[in-house]
Queue: 4 jobs
Job 1
Amino acid sequence: MGVERNGLEGLWEELVRLCNDQFSSPSFKRLLSTKISNERAQQYSIQMVYYVQNRRDCWGYVQGSAPLEIKKLIWEHEQDELIGRKSEGKMDHITLAVKEGEVFGLTAEAFERTPRLEGGEVCFSAWIRLAQRSWLEAIAASAILEMRNSSELIKGGSLSYRISETFQRDLGIPMKKQINNAEHVVMDVEHAHLLMRVSRQYATGESQRQAILRGAKESLLIDRVYRDHLADMLAALP
Amino acid sequence: MQLVKELCATLDKMVNDQFDSIEFKKFFAVPLTLERGRFYVVQSALYTSNRRDCWGYVQGASPLEVKRVIWEHESDELINDPRAGMDHYALTVKQGEVIGLKPEDFEKAEVPSMVRACFYAWHHIAMHNHWLTAYTSSHMLERRNNGKIVSGGGMSYRVGKKFENEIGINLKRMISLDVHVVADTEHSENISEMFERYVKTSEDCDLVLKGAQESMAIDRAYRGALGYYMEQIK
C-alpha cells in the first residue's frame, strides 16, 4: 500500500484520501442532502456545541499523553478553541457556536436545556476512548476531524463549508452570518497541518505510521456514525 | 459553603500530615550531597513532565469552565511563567546548571522503577476517575506545596532550604524551587476556587476526598522512593 511505499508522503496522501472519501459515504451524503428548515438548523446548531465540547475533552486527553513539545502545540491549538483571542476580537469556539445560534432564533437557554442526542453521546464516548489510546493514535483521531474540515484538502469544500452552503441555500442565511461555520472554514485549514507537523517528527517508522492511520480511520468511522445520527435527527424534524 | 469550608480544612490537614509520614521524614533525613542533589533535580524534571500529563487528562475530563482554568494554569507550566521568563520544565533544566547538570543529563535520564510505578498511578487517577477525583489528585500536589497552608513551608521551600543548609546553595539560586514556592501558592488557590463552584453534596465531597487520599498516598510512595534512591548514591 501507498503508506509502506512512500513513507511520510504516502501517509499524508492516504490521510487526505480518507478525509475526501468521507463525503462519498452514505451517512455524509444523507446529511448533506437533507433539506434544512429553521427548526432543523436550530437542532443541528445545538448538537454542534456538544460536538465542539467533546473535541475539547479529546484534545485534553491527547495533550496529556503527547510528548512535551507536542503538548505545547496542542495548548496553542486549544487557545483558539477554548479561550479565544481577545486581543484580535476572537471569541472561543463554544461562545461562537452559541452566538451563531441567534441567527436561527436560538437563545443561550435553548442550548442549556436541550440534551445531547443519544447517538451523539455514544459517539462522544467512542471518541474519548480513542483519545485515551497511545498518543499517536489519539492525536491522529482528533486531528483527522480538522483535516476533514479543511477546504484546502477536501475537493468540493470541507464539512463546515458544505453545511453553511446548505444553510445559505435553504434558509437564505449568508455564510458571513454563520459566524461559527465561517470561522471553522478558515481555522481548520490552519489546524489541519498539525498532524503533518507531528508526523514529520514522530512517524519515522512503519509502526508509527500505522498507528496514525489506525487512529484516523477509527475516528472517521465514528464520524460517519455520528453524521448518520444527525441525519436521523434532522429527518425526524419538520 | 460550610460543606466546602470543612472539606478544605480536611484537605489542609492532609497536606500537613504528609510531612509527618515516615516516607517524607525518611526523604528529608537523607543527607544531601552534590550527586544526590543532581539526582533530585533531574527527577524533578521528570515529575514536572508527569504533572503535565496528568493536568492534560484532567482538562480532558473536566467541565468547560474548569478546562479553561486548567488551560490558564498550564500557561505558566507549559509555555511561559512570567515569574521566570520560561516554562517550568525549562526552568528545572536551567536550575540544573547551578549544580553542574547539562541538558543532556535530563534528556538521557531514566525513570527509576519505583518512581515509574508512582507516575503510572497518578496517570491512572487522572484518566480513569470522575473529574472531581482526578482534579483533586493533581491539585493536592500543589496544595502540599503551598506555604500558606503547610506549617513550616511547602515541599519546594523545604527542599530549597535543604540545598541551602546541606550543600550551601542559596534558595534563590535554585530557581525552579524558588519559583514554585510562589507559583504553587497561587496555583493551588486558583484551582481551589473551583471547589466552591462544583462541590454541592456529600457525594461530591467523597469524590474530592478519594482523589486527595489516593494522590497523597502516591506522593508518600514517591518521596519514599526518591529517599531510597538518593541513599544509594554514596
Job 2
Amino acid sequence: MPLARRGFLKSVAGLPLVPAVLAPQAPPAAPGAPSAGNEAVAEALAEAVKRQFGAHLDAAELAAVRKELARNLESAERLRQAARLGNADEPVARFEARPPRAQEKRR
Amino acid sequence: MIGEDVLFSGIREIGAHLRAKRLSAVDLAEMSLRRLDTIGSKLGAVVTVTRERALAQAHRANQELLAGKDRGPLHGIPYGAKDLLATKGVPTTWGAEPLRNQVFDFDATVVRRLEEAGAVLVAKLAMVELAGGLGYNNPDASFTGPGRTPWNPAHWSGGSSSGSAAAVAAGLVPFAIGSETSGSILTPAAFCGVTGLRPTYGLVSRHGAMALCWTLDKLGPLARSADDCGLVLSAIAGPDPQDPTTGEAFRYREKPAKRGRPGQRFKVGVLRNATVGTDPDVEDHFKQALSALRDVADVEEDVPFPDLPYSEAVGVIVDAEGAAAFRDLIESGKVKQLRDAADRVGGYAMMMTRAADYVDAQRSRVAMRAELDALLSRYDALLAPTRTRLAPPIGRDFDAPAPGAPPAPEPAPGAPRPPATIPAGNLAGLPAIAVPMGFGKDRLPTSLQLLGRAFSEETLLALAVAYQEMTDWHRQRP
C-alpha cells in the first residue's frame, strides 16, 4: 500500500520525489538508495510502532508504515544535508512568556 | 426577472441587485440553497446545507437593507465554509467519518466576522479528510466521496478545500472560505478554474479552525475573481486576540482597481524552469498569460528560484505537528475509519517523527524565508503555473501511472525541475493568488500563480485584477 505525501507531491504537484543536488558541499544520496543507517532506524521505529499501535495495524499496514518511515528519514536527511545549520541558528517558532490575554490587558 | 445565473456574478454586481431591490437576500439565499441541494451532492462538494441559519441571516440582511443599514459589500451575499470551521450548533466534521457528529458551541472567528459583514452562511463544504494531513493518495479521501471539478466531473476538484472551489465554480455560492497548509487553496482553485487567495501567515485568524499544522495553517477566500477575493479578505483579516499569530490589518480598496498602478507599471519575474515537465496546455496558457501581463507589467524572464529543500521541510513539520494535532485519533485507532487507505496508516509513521528533525526543519525555515524575501523584494510578484498538470481523474491513486503508461521515471540528478513554489511559499508564510488562465484537454482548467512578499496582498490583488480585466477565463461557466 503506497503512502502518499511525497508520492502526491511528485505525481500531482509535479514536484520531485527526490530533489537534485541541494547544496554543493553536501550532495544527497542518489534517488532510491536509502542509507543503511536510515534503514536500520526505520526498522527500529517500525518496531516501536508495532509495539505501541500493533493492535490497530495488520501486517500489510505495518509494512506500509515501515516504508513511510524510511522515506521520512531519507527526507529529513536531505533537509539536514542541505540546510547546514550552526549551533546558533534558532528555530522559527518563538515562545512568549507573557500570555496573549495579558498582552491585551497591557495595551 | 433575475434567475439563478446571478450566482455566477461578481460580489459587487450581486450587491448592486440587492441594493436596487431587484433581488432580495432571501431569494438569493434560496437560489443558492436549491443549487447546493441539486448540484452540490453530484460534485461531492457539500457536507451540510445550513438552511435554517441561512434564511435567518438572509431575512436579517433584507430587513437591514430596507431600513437603510448597509454592512458593506458582503451584505446579503451567500457563502460556504470549508467544514473545518466551527459553526455553532451545526456539525463540523473535518471531512472525517469518525468526526461526523462533532458539533461546536461557537463560531470560528472568520465565520463571526463574515456574519458581522452581513454575509449569509448557506453550507459547510466538503474537504479532504483532516485536510489531507495524514497523507492521502486518492481523490476519494472524504466521507462525502471524491470532490469533482464542475468542468469535468470525471476529474478531481483538487484538495483539500475541494468543496469550497467546486461550489464557487458551479455557481452554488459566490465565494467560499478554504484553508491551506501547503497547497489546499491554490490546488482546488486551479483544478476548478476559480480564483483562490492564500493570505500571508498570520493575516487571518484561525481561531475555531481545525488545526493540522500550527506553524503553516492559513485561511483564505476562493471566489470568481481577484476583486471578490479582496472584498472577502478585507472582511476576515486582521488581529484577533484568540489567534496569537495575527497582528497585521488589511484593507482592500473599495473601488475596482485600474489597470496597473497610477503612473507605474508592475514588475514581475517569471521563474526559471516554470514550465519544465508541465502539461502542454499549461505551458501554452502560461505563455499567453505572460503576453497579456506585458500590457501592465515589466516582465523579467528566467528568474532563478532558490533551490532549497522546501518540500522536505514542509513534510517534517506537517508530520510532527499533524501527529500532535491528531494524536487522539491516531492512538485510539479511530483513523481506521478514514476513507483513504493511506490516511488510515499515515499517522503512525508521523508519530515517530524525531524531535531533532522537526526543530532542524524549523531552523532551516529561517534561512529559506530570508532567501525568498530577498528575491521577492525585487518584484511585485513571481509567476509560475499554479499546477504543472491538469486535474487527475477520479478513481486512480495519485502515484499510479495512467492505464497502459509506464511508471514515471525518477528525475535525473541535476535535471531541470519546476520551482517548488507551493511548499516554498507556505514554508515562508507568503501570500499567493491563483487565477484561471485557460482550459485545456477535456475542458480542464489551467491556472496562473502569483507569489508575493509577505503582506503584499494589495499588490498581488491589484495585479490579478488587472490580469482579469484583460481576460475572461474567470467569467466562464462550466
Job 3
Amino acid sequence: MINNILPYLVVSGLLFAIGFAVVVSKKNLILMLMGVELMLNAVNVNFAAFSKFDPDPVKGQMFSIFVMIIAAAEIAVGLAIVLKIRRHYHEIDPEKLNNLRD
Amino acid sequence: MTEQLITDLVFWLFCLITVSGAVYVLLSNHVLYAAYGLLVTFLGVAGIFVFASAEFVSAAQIMIYIGGILVLLVFGIMLSSRRKAGIDHLKVENAPRGTGILIAGLLGTMLILLASRLSFSSDATGQWLAIKSLGFSLMTTYVVILEVVGMLLLMALIGATYLAKDDQ
C-alpha cells in the first residue's frame, strides 16, 4: 500500500484543509501562523511523495527542504510582527486590529 | 507478507498521528495546547517522510520545524500572552466557524477526490536515496538557490530581530 501514491495525497489534502480551517476560524494571530505552517507541511508531504516515484528523487526533496527554510524565515518575521502588534494594540485578535491610528 | 503488513500498519499509524494532531490544533481552545498538537503533527509528518524514502528531509523536518519553528512559536506565545487583569490570554475564541469549516471541508474533499481520480505511474523506484547524492546536488546543481535562500534567511532573521526590539 505504501508503494501507492494515493495515501500520501490523502493525508496531504486533509492536512491542507485542516490548516486552512485553522487559518480562517481562529481569532488569534499565532494560531493563524500555525495554520499556515500546517499548510506548508502538507505541500512538503506532496513534494516528498512525488519524489518517491520520480526517477530522480533529488528534485522533489530539494523543493521540500527549501520550502522548510522559507517557512522558518516566514515564521520568524511573522512572530516579530505579532509581538510588535501585541505591544502596540495589547491584543492579538485580528478582529480588533482595525484602527490605523491611536 | 507479515513484514508488509507491519509496514502498512506503521505507515497508517503515522498518518493517524499527523491528522489527529492537526485536528487537535483545530479544536483546541488554548494556544499552548495547540502548539503541542502541532508538535505531534510535525513528528507524524517526519515519519511519513521516512516512508517516502526522504530520510534527510525527515531529519530536517525534525530539526527545522520542531527544533526551530515550534520553539519560536512557543516563545511567541509566552511573550505575547502576558496575563493582565485576570484575563487569560492563552484562551482563544473561535470565529463563527460555519462558513470557514464548510469551505475547508469542500477543499479537502475536492483535493482527495481529484487525487483519487488521477492515475500516476506508481511503480516506486524503490531506491533509498543516499544522502550523499542529495548533498552533492545541493553543493553543485542547486548551490545558487542555496546561497540565495541562506541570504534570505539571514535577512529575515535580522529583520525579525529589528522588528521585535523594544523601542521606547
Job 4
Amino acid sequence: MNRPLPLRRSTVAFALVAGFTVLSGPVQARDLRVGLSAEATSMDPHFHNLGPNNALRRHVFEGLIGTDPDQRLVPALALSWTPRDATTWEIRLRPNVTFSDGTPFTARDVVYTFCRIPLVENSPSSFATFVRPMESVETPDPLTLVVRTANPLPLLPTNLTALGILSAKASGAAETVRFRKGGCEGMGTPPKSTDFGNPAVAVGTGPYRLKEYQRGTQVVLTGNPTYWGGAPAFGTVTMKPIPSSGPRVAALLAGDVDLIETPAIQDLPRIRAAGFTVTQGLSNRIIYIHLDQFDGAGWKTPTIRGADRNPLLDKRVREALSKAIDRKAIVERVMGGVAQPAGELLPYPLFGTTRDFPVVPYDPARAKALLAEAGYPNGFEITLGTPNDRYINDEKIAQAVAQMWTRIGVKTGIDASTASTFFTRRNKFDFSAYLAGWGADSGELSNSLNSLVLCLNPEAGLGFTNRGRYCNKEVDRLTVEAMRTIDDGAREALLRKASALAMADYPLIPLHFEVTPWATAKGLSYTPRVDQYTLAMDVVVK
Amino acid sequence: MLTYLFQRFGQALITIAAMALLVFVGVYAIADPIDMLAAPDATADERAAIAARLGLDRPLPVQFATFAWNALHGDLGRSFVYNEPAVQVILQRLPATLELAFTALAIAVVVGLPLGLWAGLRPESASGRTIMAGSILGFSLPNFWQGLMLVLVFAVTLGWLPAGGRGETVRVLGIETGLLTLDGLRHLVLPALNLALFKLAVVIRLARAGTREAMLQDFVRFARAKGLSPSRIVGVHVLKTILLPVITVIGLELGSMIAFAVVTETVFAWPGIGKLLIDSINRLDRPVVVAYLMLTVCLFIVINLVVDLIYAALDPRVRLSESEP
C-alpha cells in the first residue's frame, strides 16, 4: 500500500475526485442495521413503559438524566440535580440545546412533558407513577427547575431517566405551561400516541431523528447533525424486529443486519466461528425461585403433598432447598456459561449491592441434614411452576432444579406454561414454588427488595411481585427507610443491611443473573448494557 | 342463482355468529391480559383502573354482548397494546401477507400445472417419475425446516438473497407494496418459494391424476377421432377438466396461506398478519386476536363462494340453483 506508484492519469483523476469529495463536506457516516428481538409498541415515549419502547425513545427523545451502560446516572438534558432539602430538588438544564425542529430546549418543555404524561390515553403501562409524587414544578428561570415532592424521594433522579422530553411547541402547547397537580395550564391539545409515527410530531433533542416508523417492519432513524453531544456515528439506523432467534441469527450471518440482540446461547459458537463479534455483559435481571410462605388462616399451599403443614414456613427447609442447588452446574451446563450465580438480588456494582456477596454453596449432605432436623427425613413432594418462553432457558433451569431437589428427597415435578398463562396463574397464587425473573429497571437494590422480598401490600405499592408472600417486618422497615433517605451513602448502607438481613433468612432462592449477549458484524462491537437495551449510541466502530 | 346466494349468505351468518362466540370465550379463557399489560410494579388501584378502562372488570356475558353489539356496528374493538382499532392494525399488515400468498399461489399454479400435465401424459417416463419424486419431497418436508434450509443455502452460504424482512416498498393507491421494487422482489423470493412448495406438490399431484383419468375418457378419444391436434386436446379439453379439482383445493389453500402463513412469516421475519397473530396471542391482545379470527372466517366464506362460482363457469354441468332438475 505504501509503495510509490507511477502516477497515471487515472490516478490523478481519482485523487481529484477523492479530494473533491472530502472538500464537499464531512465524510458520509456509515449506516447501521439492527435486528431486534422485540418491537416497540409505539413511537410515543410515554405510551408504554416497556423495554423496547424505552430503548427506542432514547435515540430520539432524551431524558433529563441518562444512564451509562452500567446504569449509573449521567447528565443528559440536565447538567445537575441537587437536593435542596428532603423534599425539594433543584435541576439545572443544559444550555444551547435545540430540538430537531430548531426550537431551543427550555424548562417549559420539561414542565410540558411532566404534564402530558398522565394525559396519555389508554396507556397499557403508564409512566404516570414517576410524575405522581411531584407536588409542584417551578421554573425560576428558563434553565432551572425546582421540583417538590410530598415525601422524601431519593429516587427522583432515577425516575427522571425514564422520561423522554417532548418539545412543547411541536406538541401544540401555549406560550406558558404551568404545572398544577391534577391538571396543568396551557397544555393545548396534546398529540395522541399514534401521532408520534409522524416525524413532524416526534420532535426530540436526541442524537437521532425519526425518519420512518413502519410498525412490524422497521423504524428508520437519521443522525442528528446538530446534536449537542456531536453528530452521532451513524448516518442512518434501521431497526427491524426479528422476534425468532433463529431467523435473527440468520439475518446477521447473511449480512442483512449488522447487529443483533440476544442471539440464542447455543448459536454463539457458530456466530464466532463465522467471524462475527459476540459481546456479553451482566444484566440487572435475576432468575429466582419464590417459595410460598403465606400462613393466613384457611390457606393451604397448593402444590405440596406429603406434609401436613407447609414445610416452606420453616427456614431450615428453605435453606435446604437453596443448598441443594448446584448453581455453578446450572450456569455451566444449562446456560452455556452465559450467566453468573447470584447471592443477592442485584449484581455488584449496582447501587446498594455488596462486593463478593456470598453465593449459597452447593451442599446436598447439609441440605439433607437440615430437612431431617426440620422433621422431613423422607422429604415431601412439590411442584415447581415455571414459564417456558419468558427467560433464557427458563424451563430447562427448572428441570435442573427439580432433579437437584429430588436428589435430597424432595420429589419435584414441573408445571411449565407459556408466559401469559404462567403470570396469570402466578398472580392467583397457584404455585407453592415458582421460577421467575426480575429486572430492576431502576438499576438499584431498593427496586429488587421492594418487588421481591417486602411484605405483599399492593395498596401501599410494596412487595408487588412477592407472590411467595415472605414477610419480615425488619427488612421492610430498613428498605422503606432507605427509600426515604436522600443521602446516597446512608441509603446505600441501609440497603446493604436490609439485603444481608433478608438473604440470611432465605426469603427466596436466588439462582443466577442473566448475561445478555449481542453479536455484531466485522468492524463493529457493542458495549453491553445492564438494562439490556440495544442503543445505536453504544455501538463501537472499530 | 339468487336463491342460492341468499342461502349461502344465511349459512355464512350462522357460521360467523357461532365462530364469534367460540373465539371470544376461547380467548377469554387463556389468561388475564392485565398481567401482561400492566407494569409488574403497578399498584392495585392502577390495575383496577386498567381493567375498568378496557372493560375487563365486567362479567363475561356482558363483555361478549358489548363485543357483539359493537361488531354489528362494524367495530371489532381497539387493540390493548397499540390503542388503535384492531381491524386497522390487521389491515396495515394485510398487504404484506397478500403479496406473499398470491406470489406463492402463482408459483404453485404456473409451475405445478405444466409439470403435473407432463407427468400425467408420460407417467412411465424418467421425467414423469422425477417430477413425482420431487412432489413427494415437497409434500413431506416440514415447512419450518425447509424455510431454514432455504435461508441457510441461499442467504447465509451463497449470499444471493436476503435472509428475511420485506425490503423496500412503494406506495401505490394507498397500499405499501414491495412487488414494484427490485429490493422488494428479492426479499419476496425465498418466503414465497417456501410457502409455495407444498401447494406446488399438491397441484402437481392433482393435475397428474386428473390428466391420467381424463386421457382415458370418451371425449378425448372422440376428439382424437375427430382429428384435433394433440396440443388442442391437452391444452383446452383436458386442461379444463383437470382445473376443477385444482381450483377447489387452491381456493382452500389460498385461504390457509393468507390466514396461517405463520411459520413462513416467522422464519423469514415477514411482517404479515400471521406474525401479528402470534405476537397478539403472546401479549394477550384480545381484540386483535378476535378480530383476526373473525376476518379469517369471513375470508374463508368468501373464498368458498368464489370457488363455487368459478366452478359453475368452468363446468356447465354444475348448476348453482337447486330448484332445477
